Amino acid sequence: MVGEVESMEHSNTEGGVDADGHANDTLGTSEAWYRPGDSFDLSVIILDAVADAADVDPLHNEFSPLYGSVDVNALETALFDPDSQRPRDIRGELAFDYEGFEVAVRADGRVSVSARD
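Below the sequence we write its predicted structure tokens.
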């Protein structure tokens, strides 16, 4: 997405108080939610969550291309494709490493990011 930045649901858990005003104690983690059909692509949600965990501006960072770590189209198809033959009651999570963080995307849309040790 280029241009206007809309509000995305996420929380930074970088110790102290997160962006939503919730107290937390975990350094270098964040959480976001992806909803297929919303205005933000899954890749935007992932990059925003990683930027939030890294405490950098999501629009001004030097992250490597996301496609070097994961095929986001395949990830989206595996977890969210409505034409998929998998039963809807099966839950799943795919995780990958990116920019020193572990990124986990769940079938319910939760994207969690945590710093790797």
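The longest strand covers residues 93-98.
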